[in-house]
Fold:
Amino acid sequence: MRRVAVTPVRVSGAALLAIAAAMLLSAVVAVIDGGGAASGLLVASLITTSVGAGLFYGSKVSPTADSALAFASVAWSWVAVSVAGALPFLLTGVIPWVRFDDALFESVSGFTCTGSTILSDFSSVPQGLLFFRSMTQWLGGMGLIVLAVAVLPALGIGGLELIASESPGPTADRLSLKVRDTARRLWLLYGAATVLIAGCLLAAGMSIFDAATHAFTTVATGGYSTYGDSIAHFDSILVEAILILGMLYCGANFSTHWHAATEGVGAYRRVSEIRWYLWIIFSAFALLVWVNAGELQWTENLRDSLFYAVSLGTSTGFGTSDYMAWMPAAQVMLLVLMLIGGMSGSTAGGMKVLRLQVVFRYAFRELLRARHPKAVIPIRMGRSTIEEQIAAKAVGFVLLYLGLIVVGGIILAGLGVDPVTAFSGSVSALGNAGPALGEAGPTNNFLVFPRAGRAVLMSLMAFGRLEVFPAMLMLVASLRGVSQIRRHREQLS
Amino acid sequence: MTPRPPVRAAAPALVQRLTIKIFTGSGSLIQRLSKGKIESAIGVTVGAVWVLCAPLFFICAIADFIDGGSDYLPLLIAGIAVEGAGLMVVRLSNFPSTLPVARLFAAVVSGALAALFAVTVAHLATGVAATLDVAVVEAAATITGTNATTIEPESFSLGMMLFRALGQWLAAAAIIVVLVRVLPHLGVGGLDADGGVATRSARRLAPRSGSTMARLMTLYIGLTGLFAIAYFAAGMPLTDSVIHSFTTLSSGGFSTRSGSIGSFESGAVEWVAIIGMLVAGTSLPLMFRALRRGDLHRFVRSIEFRAYLGLVTVVVISILAWSDGWPTLTSVRYAIFVTASAISTTGYLSGSSQILPFGGEALLLVLMLIGGMSASVAGGFKVMRFMVLGQYIGRELRLSIHRSAVEKIHLGRSSIGETALARIIGELFLATMIIVPTVLIFASDGLGVEGAFTFAISSISNVGIAFGAAWPLGHLNSMGAIGHLTAALLMVVGRVSITPVLVALGGIGEPMQRSLRRWRLTRHEGTVR
Structure:
């Protein structure tokens, strides 16, 4: 068989095969549960497998590999899995075919670890599908990245380009000289964290199904729950404490976790970002407690403030109460947390703490330069100095990020959504947080947005998950790829 | 192509000569007075501001006396006190032999604070402000050209109304001085001759800054007179015409009536206000060159002006498209009015009772943040800076593909230096860092999420009107003392620019920083020994 040398097609095929495996596993869960949806999941799995296999085996890796190609591969594989992920919702009949875009929304929200949902009646959704829904977040978090990196050596392209473009965060810390080893280690850590959280939740009194699904979405900092009222359903301090620790752990850099696991806890002390990360969450918690002091009982205040500070500070989006009943200042604080997000190199979304650090140093440096115009002042982070190019990239990212929030907010408001819901929805979608403010609070679903608005939110989620730049470059690189193929054909003819 | 000869006219020449006389006269007066022993730029600036703004008190006292108002005596006494304090401070101070940038910034900030103090005294002395925080925020709105108030304009005497309007006008005139003398040190935003951004709209008119200032002031005075006549011709009463021409051209926004321009219920008045606001948001040097040479094509050649008008057009069309029903003449005028009011950061209100669509609100908020053209008297971050940021983002995207490429950012024919670029970005981030905590303060002091967010942006851009439950002007009334003082601070920071304020504050903290650094470096010395 003659195979076309298009790397994005090959990577997309591999990703689809992974999703098909997840669908198959969910079908098994559905069979055990007996609540239906097994056939729908099986059919979805078969379709995805055949398309994935066709793409994977029908193409080969391009002989030349550059960063644009890597960006395109990552972005198109995300598009492919998002479309495939919508199939189970449609084939099980939970979402009718006429609302295909809603199924796509649920899938995109899952794979981007956002956690925004359009489902309202969770009791009527089969458990097999809820399991798949949680798996989309787990795969979408770090698992999919690591899987993609693990198969890259087989694909034959330099995987580091890919991990740099895909791993959530501005830096890709090489844990090993070989990309395959790095991926394997991260995957191991990711899996171990999932098992540990699931075990703890099980011990805290959750059922196996709930423990597994919530562990999936905690480790991915996704926030999908199997209940409409999210974590409030369990009404257990122990469950909330486990989830808080889990979210805090998974919102931090996985490379640092690996270093800490192998070299000792001292590894955390060397990273200034982790201090900022914890400081931001703790400050937000303190501020929330202070602002809500007159509104809530103190035990409830401490419990809910801590949970939401961590849940939105790590862009997870689990909920224990309706924060829309809180004071406006508390809501503003939660919005700031959604904007910042977790640490780089973690599964969390948002702008990332590291970039905030860079931007803060950058602005401070300019202030110093205004005072001492001839001074040469480097940008320092902890004990190291950041190169101008890296700082410029981080600054460019933040500007583009803020610009996208504004553009998204304007479009949503133009579609008739009130400004608070529109802009907070834009912040939440781009930061992959989940709930927003206004009408899209934690107790409501995203059907409050019009159909076109949900399409905008989907795009924002994808932009946020792909760290904006790769997503923007996806089209550029794809166009270039198409012209390369055309040129190649012309040469052959 | 040979440049067109300048247009000669008697009236502008006379105004220019007068302006130069006032400039040189007040300059030499301050120089003669400042022969004290303390060498301090801050002292001279504070003294000069008080000495030079005292006549404002006297003019308004006379106007109030003629009108039969009750505020002439408090204004007179306050004016004498301010003049006396100014003379004392300026007599004790002396011009320093050298003036580093940091001290220049400190002088500018202290000048703004001195003006704030003087205007606060006037509000307290006349009793229009019951408490200190209200007086401070009213004074801040006056000196920064922000249309935010807690008091119904109808309750003011003529003297006080004129004082506030003239205060806004003079503050904008002071901005022209800052544009020429101070902002070039920031690299952008002013009339730049230091290798930063020198686009067509922000270029010096003459090698000497004094001549440039005089020319710009002539234009400013001339336009104010022209619009006073236009308002009058459109059917506004004489006093209202004069007061509104002051607050239109300065992009201040104070009105004689609580319903703002809309109270006059006249389409012609609204059209005059629209043109006035758009003029206030246009670059003064660009206007001067175009009008002097009679070459209106200069406007078309300016890339920033094209972007400015382009923004207005896009927003007007969007508001009309998102509104219910087909556009009518009234709805078109309303859309243009609110757009001009937002982009020029004037904050006037139209009389039309049209409901603004949600999308329109969002766009107007963005326009408030963007503000007018560089080297205009409008507030906001300025159109040019956003254009530069757009170019920067585009470059970073391109560099992600072509990593080793070297690309320079251009705006029209002007090339933007990396230093200027970094300063623009730094300024934006600093503004964001200031806005976020103030939103939190506003939200905890009585405003809702939307009100807090929009009022913070409106305050830092010196607009005044904001959205939310308290739309359009009820935000200050919804807050307490902390909110008032924070809003006042935000207005001043927005007007003076963030960097000078922070650099001036840094100057206070620098000795502390130095000792802290020394302590850090030497704290382990004992254990090593």
The longest helix of chain A spans residues 127-155.
